[in-house]
Amino acid sequence: MPHTTTPSPSKTSIQLEDVESAAKPQRIKPTDYTDNNINQVENKRLKDVEISVPVVYGTMAFYLGKKASELQSHKWTVYVRGATNEDLSVVIKQVVFQLHPSFDNPIRVVESPPFELSECGWGEFEICISILFHDDVCDKHVDLFHLLKLYPDAESGPQSAKKPVVVETYNEIVFPDPSENFLARVLSHPAVYVPRLPAGFNLPAPVPSSNMNVKGKDGTKNHPLNHWFINFSEADELLKLASAHQRVQAHILKLRRQLSMLDGPPQPSKLAYGMISECT
Q1: 94 touches 78 (CB < 8 A)
Q2: Measured by CB atoms within 10 angstroms of the end CB, which terminus of the chain is less buried, N or C?
Q3: Where does the chain show beta strands of DSSP type E?
């Protein structure tokens, strides 16, 4: 089984012709479109329309416990998934994972969902993840970089064979001026954010992509690692923000009480003395 030999390999992105990479952005645009391979009549572009695809990429590492050896201490999985675990093959044609060169066949191509691969090893290193899209989506690709993490932080306690180390990043890939075919295919897809279209706007019949999941749009909802995935839903984020707001308010109130104790009891104002004398 392959294993890592050094903790930090050099950063080498996979090169394709006429592509530009975007490393660790918050909202990713695969740069300007070119139309070399697109039929303009059949694939008309929609100006001033923007499609957004939320994606999550990351790694999940399990300690092998009693089965661990010096060279194979962990089993890990690197993946690209929908933010709500929906199928992304409606947009993504293939994902290329570039591993450390000490692995056999370090460049791995995954052409159908789930877009992931699993390996065993002992070292942490940076993985280059290249996402390629269907022809009617975009003829560019996006490069992402993710550090494989095997060992938990000190505050998380000792490593356990039952609880994995999960590191994920949320991004939104933005497609400006999409083709009519692309928009028609993802118009009602739960993994894609599509703007509201004008009333009476007509789109051609959707054309399925070649690698779309024939079993339906389950994506990673039934994935065996599903319960370890981080929840990136908007509702969950709002709950976290509300909880953080409550903690901040409670801390402010506590500090105010401490300051008031340091300053001593409040002194009545002159206005208060005047009101008392008039009432007596």
Answers
A1: no
A2: C
A3: 27-28, 50-63, 74-82, 92-98, 107-110, 115-121, 126-133, 141-147, 165-176
Cα dihedral 131→136→139→145 (10° resolution): -10
Number of Cβ within a 10 Å radius of residue 196: 6
Six-digit token string for 214: 């024939």
Q: DSSP state, 246?
A: H
pLDDT 10s digit of each residue in the chain, 280 long? 444 433 333 333 333 333 333 333 456 767 543 444 444 435 688 888 899 999 999 999 999 999 999 999 999 999 999 988 889 999 999 999 999 999 999 999 999 999 999 999 999 999 999 999 999 999 899 999 999 999 998 777 788 888 999 999 999 999 999 998 999 899 888 889 887 776 666 666 666 665 565 444 455 667 777 777 877 766 556 556 666 777 787 788 888 888 888 876 656 555 444 444 444 4
